[in-house]
Design a protein that fits this description.
about 525 residues; binds 1-deoxynojirimycin; binds calcium ion
């Protein structure tokens, strides 16, 4: 399937860079990243070749969940700066031709948000029904069996008014009641506020949880749960997430976004591909795309990845736009999951698939998870449910800019430990090294941006002669590429496919074969990926 490349929007042709603001660049020496720090680094994001930057939340917050507990949706937390700093960031982004996407957190607020402070004050407060309040179960205890993602019940009893309130995450993150039209009005105003300030869209947090079962039925047990998984997975979220009633809300968000030029709505939902389709909208447009996290979850082997790409491509109806992600602030880093050598192969995959790539800061230099000693754990998930490897601090370590103190991230001790390898693995060194991971990612982004077949062409799977090798073509009217990815640590030889096909290496993940004529059999070195320009002749 192919949309005409010249008909594509910027967010289809381009790529998005995800910044976790606490960890990107600290400009005022308090060990916490901030907006002036990010502003100073936007030039880097542009140099790398990205088209937009998505900022994880920067709003005033008690930081129970590091900004995903919002106390004021239209302000900036003093730790990150001021609204003026934000406007300066926007001006710099405009100067560079970069777009800014905000994180939008509609499912819940902080317990310190004035709406919740009012809501919990009395059963008769005008904000009472802005949140989800229920009486205790007939015999006492929580109203139903729903579990919080971060451990324990998703209900907390509030003695002031004698009812329980719902929180899909921490008890410090009460869920808003989207069945109340006042909530929707107020939250659409929040979107309008940032759109008026010039942002080009939102990554919508926990979008699948916005609306819950109207009857609050118990969730059924999950027969696939295995010990070692987050306890939350003991049940299926049948009644607490992914309810069809949320789709009209997405349509109204989209209607608002469409009043502003070039705006994009991306939604975070960890759901099977078949379920994600609804989030694009049914009847009326919804999200531009829900995130597709399959590469984060999949075993790293050529057959598994090949078949998930093929299936996703086949299931996505015409006109719905794909996307791919290797990492984010909630998942262990790709270079830790599959190793640094394979992380290069993964980068080639990400940047040659059909669909918008979203890159997590630091993955472009091969940053790995940083172990955090028990006494420095910050993530509430790890604190609530320790010892299962659920903690997200390791993938949130400070960006490694250079070999100097604190990796150039800050002049003070950072809020999370800097990687021990930052003297060898950093932006400054890799910028100078034509064979570095950074050089590879930059080259791939440039090649992708220059070739309609890559940013907009068809994806054509090619049967692979070896279980370690994934092959596919990307094709547009006048150009054809073949991608050959060796997921293994041994050399592999592959035939080129159609007789008479020939071409040349555009880029190898090892950055040393550009221009080499392609002959069959093609030799892939261990952990090597090749992007080949092919033609018949
Ligand atoms: C998903 C966010 O990505 C994660 O960091 C956060 O903890 C939860 N949603 C709750 O907002
Ligand atoms: Ca700071």
């Amino acid at each position: 399937m192919m949309t005409r490349p010249d008909a594509l929007q910027w967010w289809q042709r381009g790529s998005i860079y995800h910044v976790y603001p606490r960890s990107f660049q600290d400009a005022n020496g308090d060990g916490i990243g901030d907006l002036p720090g990010i502003t100073g680094r936007l030039e880097y994001c542009r140099w790398l070749g990205c088209d937009a930057v998505w900022l994880s939340p920067i709003y005033p917050s008690p930081m129970a969940d590091f900004g995903y507990d919002v106390a004021d949706h239209t302000g900036v937390d003093p730790r990150f700066g001021t609204l003026d700093d934000f406007d300066r960031l926007m001006a710099e982004a405009r100067r560079l031709g970069l777009r800014i996407l905000m994180d939008y957190v509609p499912n819940h607020t902080s317990e310190q948000h004035p709406w919740f402070v009012a809501s919990r004050s009395s059963r008769h407060d005008p904000h009472r029904h802005w949140y989800v309040w229920r009486d205790p179960a007939p015999g006492g205890g929580p109203p139903n069996n729903w579990l919080s993602v971060f451990g324990g019940s998703s209900w907390t009893f509030d003695p002031t008014t004698g009812q329980y309130y719902l929180h899909s995450y921490l008890k410090e993150q009460p869920d808003l009641n989207w069945r109340n039209p006042e909530v929707e009005r107020a939250m659409l105003d929040v979107m309008r506020f940032w759109l008026e300030r010039g942002v080009h869209g939102f990554r919508i947090d926990s979008v699948s949880r916005l609306v819950k079962d109207a009857e609050f039925r118990d969730n059924p047990p999950n027969p696939d749960y295995r010990p070692g998984q987050a306890p939350y997975h003991q049940q299926r979220a049948t009644y607490s997430a992914d309810r069809p009633d949320l789709l009209p809300i997405l349509a109204r968000m989209r209607q608002l976004a469409d009043r502003y030029a070039d705006t994009v709505l991306l939604g975070e939902a960890y759901l099977p591909a078949a379920r994600l389709r609804a989030y694009y909208g049914e009847g009326r447009p919804g999200l531009h795309f829900p995130f597709n996290f399959q590469l984060i979850r999949s075993p790293w082997d050529a057959a598994a990845v090949g078949s998930l790409v093929e299936q996703y491509e086949a299931e996505l109806p015409a006109g719905l736009w794909p996307n791919w992600v290797l990492g984010n602030h909630d998942n262990h880093r790709v270079a830790t999951r599959i190793g640094r050598r394979q992380a290069r192969v993964a980068a080639m995959l990400l940047l040659t698939l059909r669909g918008t790539p979203v890159l997590y800061y630091g993955d472009e230099i091969g940053m790995v998870d940083v172990a955090v000693p028990a006494d420095r754990v910050r993530d509430p998930w790890e604190k609530n449910v320790p010892g299962l490897g659920l903690g997200r601090d390791p993938e949130r370590s400070p960006m490694q800019w250079d070999a100097g103190p604190h990796a150039g991230f800050s002049t003070a001790a950072p809020w999370l430990p800097v990687a021990g390898d930052h003297r060898q693995v950093n932006v400054a060194l890799q910028r100078e090294d034509p064979r570095s991971m950074l050089s590879l990612v930059r080259a791939l982004l440039a090649i992708r941006a220059a070739h309609p077949a890559l940013f907009g062409g068809r994806y054509v799977p090619v049967p692979s002669p070896h279980p370690d090798v994934m092959l596919y073509r990307r094709e547009a009217e006048n150009e054809r590429f073949l991608v050959a990815l060796n997921f293994g640590g041994a050399p592999r030889e592959i035939g080129l496919g159609s007789p008479g096909e020939r071409g040349s290496v555009v880029v190898s993940t090892l950055l040393d074969r550009a221009g080499e004529p392609v002959e069959t059999p093609l030799c892939l070195r261990p952990d090597e990926g090749l992007l080949l320009a092919v033609g018949s002749g």
